Amino acid sequence: MRRTALLACATLLAGLLPLASARAAVADDPAPVPVDRFEGEVPFAGPPAEGLFTWGSDTDDPPALALAARDDAPEGDKVLSGTYDISGYGGFSHEFASAGPPRDWSAHRGVRFWWHGENNGRKIAFEIKDGGADGGSSELWTTSFTDDFTGWKRIELPFTDFAYRTDHQPVGGIDHVLGLTAMWGYAVTLPAGAKGAFAMDGVELYGRADPSLRTFVTTGSAVYPVDEGGTASVEVTVGTTGSAPLADPVTVAYETAGGTAAAGRDYTPVRGEVTFPAGTASGTSRTLRVPTLKDRSAETAETIPLRLTVAGAKAPAETPQVVVDAHGLPYLDGRLPVKRRVADLLARMSLEEKAGQMTQAERGALTAPGDIAAYDLGSLLSGGGSAPTPNTPEAWAKMIDSFQLRTRATRLQIPLIYGVDAVHGHNNVAGATIMPHNIGLGATRDPRLAQETAAVTAAEVRATGVPWDFAPCLCVARDDRWGRTYESFGEDPALVDAMATVVQGLQGRADGRDLDRADKVLATAKHFVGDGGTAYGSSTTGTYTIDQGVTRVTRQELEAVHLAPYRTAVDRGVGTVMPSFSSLDLIGDGRGPVKMHARADMLDGVLKDRMGFDGFVISDWQAIDQLPGDYASDVRTSVNAGLDMIMVPYAYRDFRTTLVDEVRAGRIDERRIDDAVSRILTQKFRLGLFERPYADTSGAADIGSAAHRAVAREAAAESQVLLKNAGGALPLKKHQKVYVAGSNADDIGNQSGGWTITWQGASGDITPGTTVLEAMRKHSPDLTYSEDASAPTRGHDVGVVVVGETPYAEGAGDVGNGHDLELSAADRAAVDKVCAAMTCAVLVVSGRPQLIGDRLGAIDALVASWLPGTEGDGVADVLYGRRPFTGQLPVTWPKSEAQLPINVGDSSYDPQFPYGWGLTTLTKVPQGGAATLKALGAAAAAAERAGAEETGRALVAKARLIVQHEAADRITEAVAKPFADADHLLLTGRYGAAVQKLTQAYRAA
Fold it and tell me: May I ask which residue range the UniProt record assigns to the signal sequence (predicted)?
């Protein structure tokens, strides 16, 4: 799933020295305080230095700024002018130095400035940073204005108009109160999608502070559920900025009125007034009680709004609602079969409620939290990097519980199902256990261990209140230029099929009986189908070169390569399936490329009908927008094709309305809607959400625990593939003096890869963990580390150079979109210097093979480390011989990019290292020749006939090690092809034939 990039962290301001105003001030108003006059008093700079700076989602998106002399300048001689052409997001900021003093704006009503209008009707966002230790750890508050005028106009933005940003905070979670006493600056976000120009002048603070900014009334919650006959307690609290006592009295009048509950029958009406006298301490609360009445009849939920009228302070943003919980209805009875509960609930639902259940929104895109109830939303998600502030397990659980609480205000109280992309651990959460990416798990050839990593992931995800994981990715990666290669277990469908045990790790038993456990989540098989087979250059999405492109295959190839893992996942009971962004072009069907989100023949025909999938289909991120036609057509086509829930992160209101309209117009049959909603409700019941909608945090203490990290460490160790080991360079010896270099030796972000904390991932210290260097120091305390190998190399016994890629995700990582398969110049230089000076081992930390052929002769040991995650100790375990190298290549390692795509089974196959290759550092490597292989072949064939899988695999493994020892560095095409074929045969249970292929490779060596 891709995630539209969130707005960059804005930052902000200039020195605020009050200047004498030439204009007469309004009585009792303080004089305006200049912030920016744009006469050159504030330099162009960058954070953390004080100054004006630009930012954007890519290198083209930051605007161009200049201080331009203009005769029509509203103030002084110059204005700030600029041009922009923004595809993602971009803008500029004026930030105070992060170590400098913040400014106090609390005496003023708001901020204003001159803006030269272009009358283009476009919205410009204005953001301020409030509180915190520095500009990088403050809270972001935002508002906007519309350019619907021509020429200069003074824009006034009262501080009461600013709202706390829910979609992004740099670190966040200070107090969620706009205090204005510690301000760090401002930022302007310019409109995207078309070229434009702007001019700005005279930023200043104006007016006297609005009293409601200093004093405010809040309630403990917006929703107060209560059992019929119980009494709801609504807590009303008065607060002030800075926590000062009240300067003036505050009164709160209250009255129950409106709602769906009937006064006198469902509740006892209440009204009255409470007063908080002057001098009352900030944080003082009063409790208002609303008694409900019991009538003993089964009912849906009923609402009782408690209207508050506040004098002397800012009123709560929402009217609190008391809700008498639904009760006595069959769908609420956990003793009944799920099928009966679904039928009862479905029969009670309106078309609008059904449409809401089919709608999934991004949590940061909610216009207001009340939209969950207003639009009967069935699901929310966190896209990559969409996290609460602070990003802690506790904050996740609290956030999701607050969303679930909103569903209590709906008539039927259907809980949300919340989803995340936990693709290698609970990777959105700082401090969670980050597993190796799937390509590394494929290298382990260990389905049991893969299942265990998924079980750890499920436990950590569910402990934060999330019951649904958009994983596993069951793509079969056929071209390493694809930016999602690392999300695949490998290039061989048999390998991907074998690793589908992760479904059981996430969900438990195939019949769904474990889904209501506090350590299990609903799994998602993605991306159906063929996303790993897209042709290079076929993508039409932005600058992508292969991701979201076209997979052109015969029906036989589709069945054998791309569909096979999904059959297994369905058999394993996977609860949801996500279609691919890509298009499928089936040779011979005469349709040409058709987006998977529109292929009813595949979604309804193959997946649901032929395979018998009984879960629900969830779309990818805004994927229906890529279908041809208008929006109504997109909705109609996708739902009729078999999509059950649609991920419409920002368009949830439009989608729900359009879906209802299409059904009422007869263009979507309501039976199709009922089928979709039944599938969704079935999984919600199986997950136990109706009985326990809120987070069970009993397992939260295990998030990132030593026990969980031990599983990740084991997986990291087993994922390491030893490609070359001349002269027994590995394992390292304790007495050796070790020299470590390379860009990825000491970078937890690089070794974790994309989909870590943020969508694209990032270099640096982004989450707790152990880098490869830190792990190595535990074995060699006196090792020398020099990232660029600039430190003297003399006097060392062995060098370890850790090189590879920096993080990326999806199409942003496609080769040709700013990426290639070559090592960086700095990494190449480090390899050359260290390997020329001493025995050296090179570790490649990457999401796909890197091209190292021209340096292979100078390298003594070469290791494919993939993306091992946070547990660098696992890498050190095999480097120092604590565990043997046992990993095998899950993809073919090419000699050059010109060979791509190259895969096991190709008629022409001459790689650097074949699929399945992986040397070992076992104490004793099996010995033998042709006679030994002949005997192993006979025994393997017998094991195959007897169904003795463990024995058969062991016999083939022994034969493989014999062949690798013989071939060594003489891997010709005659060796590589049968060697790779043997590993495929092994995975499909044909042990005798596998040894025959290995014997063929041995003879060619």
Answer: 1-27
Question: Whole-angstrom Cα distance, residue 547 to residue 920?
Answer: 35
Q: Which of 539, 644, 664, 538 lies closest to 600, judged by CA?
A: 644
Helices (H) and strands (E) in the chain, counts: 24, 37
Query: For residue 220, what are the CA distances in angstroms to 280, 287, 374, 768?
Result: 18, 10, 20, 34
Specify the pLDDT at position 260: 97
Q: Give the position of tokens 């049968």.
A: 978
Tokens 């003594």 label which residue?
860
Q: Is 620 a catalytic residue?
A: yes
* 869 strand-pairing partners: none
Dihedral of the CA atoms 7, 9, 10, 13 (nearest 10)? 180
Question: Any idea how long the chain is?
Answer: 1005
Output the 3-class SS for 898-930: HHCCCCCCCCCCCCCECCCCCECCCCCCCCCCH
Bridge-partner residues for 862, per DSSP?
Answer: 724, 842
Query: Can you tell me the distance from the alpha carbon of 984 to that of 347, in angstroms, rounded to the nearest whole number?
Result: 50
Instruction: Show the tokens assigned to 148.
Output: 């619907």
If you ran DSSP here, which 8-state letter would residue 619 be given? -
pLDDT at residue 171, rounded to an integer:
64
Rounded Cα gap, residues 547 and 538, in angstroms: 8
Contacts of 39-47 spanning 24+ positions with Cβ under 8 A: 39/67, 39/76, 39/77, 39/78, 40/67, 40/78, 41/14, 42/14, 42/94, 47/11, 47/93, 47/95, 47/98, 47/135, 47/136
Tokens of 650: 């920002």
Residue 684 is predicted with a pLDDT of 98
Residue 342: which H helix or E strand, with range? helix 338-348
Half-sphere exposure of 600 (CA within 13 A, CB side): 7
Q: Is 497 a catalytic residue?
A: no
What is the secondary structure of 407-465 as a DSSP string?
HTTSSS-PPPEEEE--SSBSTTSTTS-BPPPHHHHHHHT-HHHHHHHHHHHHHHHHTTT
Cβ neighbours of residue 962 under 8 Å, at least 6 residues apart?
A: 926, 927, 928, 929, 932, 933, 998, 1002
Nearest C-alpha neighbor of 25 from the set 208, 212, 209? 208
List the structure tokens of 445: 């050839």
Q: Give the pair of three-digit tokens for residue 979.
A: 């060697």
Given a cut of 70, the residues of the chain with pLDDT beneath it are 1-28, 98-99, 167, 171-174
Q: Which amino acid is at 865?
A: S
Both tokens of 105, joined, read: 């704006």
DSSP letters for 540-580: -STT-SSTT-EEEE-HHHIIIIIIHHHHHHHHTT--EEEE-
Selected catalytic residue, list 36, 662, 810, 814: 810
Report the chain's C-alpha Rg in angstroms: 31
pLDDT at 57: 78
Nearest to 198 by CA among 153, 143, 140, 159: 153
Neighbours of 395 (CB within 10 A): 17
Instruction: Strand 468-469: give its sheet, edge to edge.
Output: 468-469, 417-420, 379-382, 359-362, 646-647
Separation CA 564–CA 494 (nearest Å): 8
The owner of tokens 């256990």 is: 433
**Angle between helical axes of 949-967 and 930-946 (0-180°, round to 10):** 160
pLDDT for 26: 44
Is the Cβ–Cβ distance between 395 and 363 less than 8 Å? no
Q: Where are the beta strands (DSSP E) in 487-637?
A: 524-528, 550-553, 576-579, 583-586, 594-595, 616-617
Q: What is the pLDDT of residues 88-122, one digit of tens each?
A: 789 999 998 766 789 999 889 999 999 999 999 99
Q: What is d(CA 739, CA 537) in angstroms, rounded to the nearest whole number?
A: 42
Which pLDDT belongs to residue 967?
94
| Pairing label, strands 583-586, 646-647 | unpaired
Which of 130, 376, 620, 981 is catalytic? The answer is: 620
